[in-house]
Design a protein that fits this description.
The protein has 404 residues and is an alpha/beta fold. 40% of the residues lie in helices and 12% in strands. It has two domains: 217 residues, Glycogen Phosphorylase B (Rossmann fold); 79 residues, 3-Layer(aba) Sandwich (Rossmann fold), CATH 3.40.50.2000. Helix 6 packs across helix 9 and helix 13 packs across helix 14. The longest helix has 20 residues. Belongs to the UDP-glycosyltransferase family. Keywords: Glycosyltransferase, Transferase.
């Protein structure tokens, strides 16, 4: 298969007027892709910056639509064929017949490296690369060509700090006697977690298997990258941003929330669901939004997968207090939730005093988020501006060679 490279505006090469060339390489999953496309819009707002987005043929239409009317370039790399367990034509996680194939799909992307490097070699000089954590192998390519790689994860700084502390200190291996026993996180005495808040690899004394191997490859590549792009803002979690940049490598750059970059879309008529929401607003009625992840097939097997968000729940409920947590019947993380318990929390959230406190907090953080993204004055805008300025003065001698 041939590599297809094309500029959004019809040209086949990057404008010679651009002094800086940024490559974005999202993982083949909508939730991982959308933030980086928002980042593309942000970067294109900087003077003399060109952006190239790498993807695969099946994912190109979605990306092209997102970047319409921009000068971003899109490069298609053929997705590997004959991958064990992956049906032909599958190039994204939302098309996988089973979530158990997530790791094989991620592993298969390594086979794209030769095509990626051939394409990079034919391009104008690259200033820096931002690639998804699941594309760990792109660090090797960046090191080979002498430009810095920034890693992108969809997680927040709270998640990164707590996971790192638990992993490094082996907190879950020897400490708790039961899976629901609360343990204090080293370095964060006010945070309590349980074994059930984490994947099994955090609990095993000697973890192994395909998932563990993939995570270790990501960790090694991430630690040797030039920086981490975080879809968050400093004011939301200052303690955790400071901790990461003091205790861990590489530096975390908060440039979000990137969803606020979404350009306004001209619509002749509002979608029916927006009209329905407007109607409820006029009636003074509250609306409860309930949704599963876009990859969730509502079956017992898949429900088990999409319920694994206890650590994020702790941040939302305990740390920044913008939500209420539904307790299980027996109080355990993996216990059963009855309709009565859910009904109680819904009523409290929509009409109770705790719900009022949550809405107040949400409003405060919404204002902070918008201020963080304001051009010239916002903390996230300043962070991205500093990042771009730093890269302008970057030389290959600063590179850290990745471990083999």
């Amino acid at each position: 298969m041939a590599i297809n490279e094309e500029m959004q505006m019809g040209s086949t090469s990057i404008s010679c007027e651009c002094s800086h060339h940024v490559i974005l390489f999202p993982f083949m999953s909508k939730g991982h892709t959308i933030p980086l496309l928002h980042l593309a819009h942000l970067l294109l707002g900087f003077p003399r910056v060109a952006v190239t987005v790498f993807t695969t043929p099946a994912n190109r239409p979605f990306i092209s639509n997102f970047l319409v009317n921009t000068t971003a370039s899109i490069v298609d790399l053929p997705f590997p064929e004959n991958v064990a367990g992956i049906p032909p034509g599958i190039e994204s996680t939302d098309k996988l017949p089973s979530i158990s194939l997530y790791v094989p799909l991620a592993r298969a992307t390594k086979l794209m490296q030769p095509d990626f490097e051939r394409s990079v070699q034919e391009m104008p000089r690259v200033s820096f690369l931002v690639s998804d954590g699941f594309l760990w192998w792109t660090l090797e390519s960046a090191t080979k060509f002498g430009f810095p790689r920034f890693v992108f994860y969809g997680t927040n700084n709270y998640f990164s700090c707590v996971s790192r502390s638990v992993g490094v200190n082996r907190t879950l291996v020897a400490g708790p006697k039961s899976d629901d026993e609360l343990i204090t996180v080293t370095g964060f005495p006010w945070i309590k977690v349980t074994r059930n808040d984490f994947d099994s690899i955090f609990k095993n004394a000697e973890p192994k298997g395909p998932l563990f191997e993939l995570i270790m490859d990501q960790v090694i590549a991430s630690s040797n990258s030039h920086g981490t792009i975080v879809n968050s803002f400093y004011e939301l979690e200052p303690v955790f941003v400071k901790h990461l940049n003091r205790e861990a490598k590489p530096k975390a750059w908060c440039v979000g929330p990137l969803c606020l970059v979404d350009p306004p879309r001209v619509q002749l008529q509002k979608p029916t669901w927006i009209q329905w929401l407007d109607q409820k607003l006029e009636q003074g009625k509250s609306v409860l939004y309930v949704a599963f992840g876009t990859q969730a097939e509502i079956s017992p097997e898949q429900l088990k997968e999409i319920s694994k968000q206890p650590l994020n729940a702790r941040m939302v409920f305990e740390e920044i207090k913008v939500g209420l947590r539904v307790e299980t019947c027996n109080g355990s993380v993996k216990g059963f939730v009855k309709k009565e318990g859910l009904e109680k929390m819904v009523k409290e959230l929509m009409d109770g005093d705790k719900g009022e406190e949550v809405r107040k907090k949400v409003k405060e953080y919404a204002e902070m988020a918008n201020k963080a993204m304001e051009e010239n004055t916002g903390s996230s805008w300043h962070s991205l501006n500093m990042l771009v300025s730093e890269i302008i003065n970057f030389t290959p001698q600063h590179m850290t060679v990745a471990e083999a």
